[in-house]
Design goal:
By secondary structure, this protein is of the alpha/beta class. The protein folds into two domains: 189 residues, Rossmann fold, CATH 3.40.50.2000; 186 residues, Rossmann fold (3-Layer(aba) Sandwich). It is 47% helix and 17% strand. It contains 15 helices and 13 strands. The strands form two sheets. The protein has a seven-stranded parallel sheet, with helices on both faces. A six-stranded parallel sheet has the order 10-9-8-11-12-13, sandwiched between helices. Helix 13 crosses helix 14.
């Protein structure tokens, strides 16, 4: 099957990681993968994986931007030369684009809803939910049913998945120590870490304030913040105001998070309110990190409750967050046991092979339905 994955861009983030990992698994199952989006930081990885890359200007959040129509024109030219069997859209903008391409090319399209979207005027007039809509968590499915009135028969619940074997530690002891020295982690320190976009909705400022209290209980603790965003300078200033700047390490944007996770003794998961699942949570679990998480939003709490492997605290409970992180830092045996349970949960319930097989089944379903309709029209 020839599959065109369409998204807004290939910058670092959960949606990009989802697309690349899913496409890799589908390619290994014998499918041919095309990937259309604006250029991004993860382009080299996409090319290395052997996907056919179609770069179009789609780096916009406006669903009816002129970029959408220009991308439509350019992709039609591509598809005339290299037709595909199915389109798979991953963002609101790419869903609108896929709707247009699907009508023109006569091929089905599938959408994955990675979070919760607003029902604006454009969404009311042109829902663009696809022949089938994949919800990455039960709360996202409920949102599709009740906010967007998508028929239940068109929704497929397929939780995110990752390859747990890909998150095995790749560094030897010497490389691991060298990485720690490079970012300023002193020998023997304990590392509290998170991976996040540095934006207001993630609550990194809350983590910094809690870390100030953690340092009083565990003086050898350091904080590793992996990611970048508009609040970075503001957060660095806050660390200085809290007198913890020398213990807080910002990495900036990184393409591969695995090795950074292995530097952490405790992972703090900070979901946004609109987060549909939280792929970073699975990545931390796959590296056997003990997880402390905030119960925030709709999607992330569903995952946490399903998995039952994280120490979960309410967003306003700063003392609870401090106590949970400190508990794992002080009790290595409990931390290792929690990490092992997390890893086993990923293996059993959140594997990439399971996700890819279920997505492939959706592809086959919509292609078969479209073929049956074509046969009926031809007989009339």
């Amino acid at each position: 099957m020839r599959i065109l994955q369409i998204t807004s861009h290939l910058n670092v983030g959960g949606v990009t990681r989802y697309i690349l990992s899913l496409s890799k698994a589908l390619k290994e199952q014998g499918h041919e993968i095309f990937l259309a989006s604006a250029a991004g930081e993860c382009d080299p990885e996409a090319l290395e994986l052997g996907f056919k890359r179609w770069v179009v200007s789609l780096h916009t959040s406006a669903e009816f931007s002129p970029q959408v129509f220009l991308a439509d024109f350019r992709l039609r030219a591509k598809l005339k030369k290299e037709p595909v069997d199915i389109l798979h859209a991953h963002t609101p903008v790419s869903q609108v684009l896929s709707e247009r391409l699907s009508r023109w090319a006569g091929v089905p399209y599938v959408t994955t809803w990675h979070g919760f979207f607003r029902k604006n005027l454009g969404r009311k007039l042109w829902p663009c939910v696809g022949d089938r809509t994949i919800a990455i968590s039960q709360p996202v499915r409920e949102d599709l049913l009740h906010t967007f009135q998508v028929p239940d028969s068109r929704i497929r619940l397929i939780p995110n998945g990752i390859d747990p074997n890909a998150y095995a530690r790749s560094m030897n002891e010497q490389e691991w120590q060298q990485r720690r020295r490079q970012i300023g982690l002193p020998p023997g320190c304990l590392v509290v870490g998170t991976i996040s976009r540095l934006v207001e909705s993630k609550g990194i400022d809350l983590l910094l304030r809690c870390f100030s209290a953690i340092c009083m209980k565990v003086p050898e603790a350091h904080l590793l913040i992996v990611g970048d965003g508009s609040m970075r300078i503001q957060l660095q200033r806050l660390a200085e105001e809290l007198s913890i700047a020398e213990k807080v390490h910002f990495t900036g944007s990184v393409a591969a998070v695995r090795d950074w996770l292995w530097l952490m003794d405790v992972f703090v998961f900070l979901p946004a309110k609109e987060e549909g699942f939280g792929l970073t949570l699975l990545e931390a679990m796959a590296t056997r990190r003990p997880v402390v998480a905030l119960r925030r939003g709709k999607g992330a709490p569903w995952v946490l409750d399903q998995a039952g492997v994280a120490a979960v605290v309410e967003p306003e409970d700063q003392e609870g967050l401090v106590a949970a992180v400190t508990g794992f830092l002080r009790n290595q045996q409990a931390a290792e046991a929690a990490g092992l349970r997390a890893f086993e949960t990923v293996q059993q319930h959140y594997s990439l092979s399971r996700m890819a097989t279920e997505v492939e089944s959706v592809y086959k379903e919509v292609v078969e339905v479209r073929n049956q309709k074509s046969e009926v029209r031809n007989q009339i």
